[in-house]
Write a structure and sequence with these properties.
two-stranded parallel ribbon; globular; 285 residues; single chain; six-stranded parallel β-sheet; alpha/beta; Rossmann fold; binds NADP nicotinamide-adenine-dinucleotide phosphate
Length: 285
């Protein structure tokens, strides 16, 4: 199939491009520099030129704290931009994939969230992503809305890399224990998205690494597997005082009859660390 990937320079975008290309799709990878999804005319031109079978929209404003002070930018990318992409795809009869977030939930549920659970975002980022879900499904009847969580993948700016850097500096690392979610490796999510796009299972899908843990437990596992003897201190969300409120529980599970299940988050972590080690070996010559 002919595919367009927007936001192709991001963590997930890079892995979607890699997987889709490896299984034989004809992929046009558009980074932010190649295509700004907030420019409707440019989006329409890019999609009309290629006439793809599907557009996988990985472009997003993902700075959760930054969105509190930059609501209009976050909304332009995550909500309006999503609508432009979905509409342009609709005009050439293409499917569209919109990647959304666990932060559409308020975190008050004790069990993992299902696709059918009520949404109630606590912060600007979640509200703009929820608006993006709605804009996408309104503009295109053949849309897949994928809610995922706690992504880590190529490019450097993820929690695993932050932990390894801080741990490597030998200083104590403070990590919250009162937020639970599903760490998700973009290599696994990318493969699932590429499988899904071949189907007609439109609508909302929860897709995240199987199982769940707190950020604190995730950090301990990162250090254990990397054999780094770091001093990890458990803290509360309140102690960190971040600008954006976060859900206490944002674990996701699918209630679909035939879900596409991702491997467990621990497996995601080991696959990521293995890939990272390989890359470092190659770079070292
Ligand atoms: N990261 C997470 O933990 C997480 C969790 C749940 C869901 N998600 C969702 O998963 C998707 C992928 O996230 P990610 O972690 O791969 O994020 P990412 O690494 O920040 O990638 C997002 C990409 O979108 C690009 N972008 C920003 N504004 C754009 C615009 N106006 N037009 C075109 N491209 C633009 C960014 O480019 P620049 O950097 O050059 O601006 C970046 O390359 C997003 O929809 C996100 O909301 C992420």
């Amino acid at each position: 199939m002919k595919l367009i990937v927007t936001g192709a320079g991001g963590m997930l975008g890079q892995d979607v491009v890699t997987v889709a290309t490896s299984v034989g799709h004809e992929v046009t990878a558009l980074s932010h520099d190649d295509l700004d999804v907030t420019d409707p005319a440019a989006v329409e031109r890019a999609v009309t030129r290629q006439r793809p079978g599907a557009v996988i929209n990985c472009a997003a404003y993902t700075d959760v704290d930054g969105a509190e002070a930059n609501e209009s930018t976050a909304s332009q990318v995550n909500a309006e931009g999503a609508g432009f992409v979905a509409d342009a795809a609709h005009q050439v009869d293409a499917k569209v994939v919109y990647v959304s977030t666990d932060y559409v939930f308020d975190g008050s549920k004790r069990e993992p969230y299902l696709e059918t659970d009520e949404t109630e975002p606590l912060q600007v980022y979640g509200r703009t992503k929820l608006a993006g879900e709605r804009a996408t499904s309104l503009a295109n009847g053949r849309s897949f809305i994928i809610r995922s969580s706690w992504l880590f993948g190529p490019g450097g700016g993820n929690f695993v890399e932050t932990m390894l850097r801080l741990g490597g500096e030998g200083k104590p690392v403070m990590v919250v224990h009162d937020q639970v979610g599903c760490p998700t490796y973009t290599g696994h999510l990318g493969a699932a998205l590429v499988r899904l796009v071949d189907s007609a299972a439109y609508g909302i899908h929860h897709m995240a690494g199987s199982g769940s843990c707190s950020w604190y437990e995730f950090a301990l596992e990162i250090f254990r597997r990397s054999e780094l003897d770091a001093n990890v201190l458990s803290s509360t969300t309140e102690m960190l005082g971040r600008p954006a409120e976060r859900p206490a529980n944002s674990a996701l599970v699918s209630g679909r009859e035939i879900p596409i299940k991702l491997p467990g988050w621990e497996r995601g972590l080991s696959d990521y660390l293995e890939r990272r080690a390989l890359l470092q070996k190659t770079e070292a010559g």
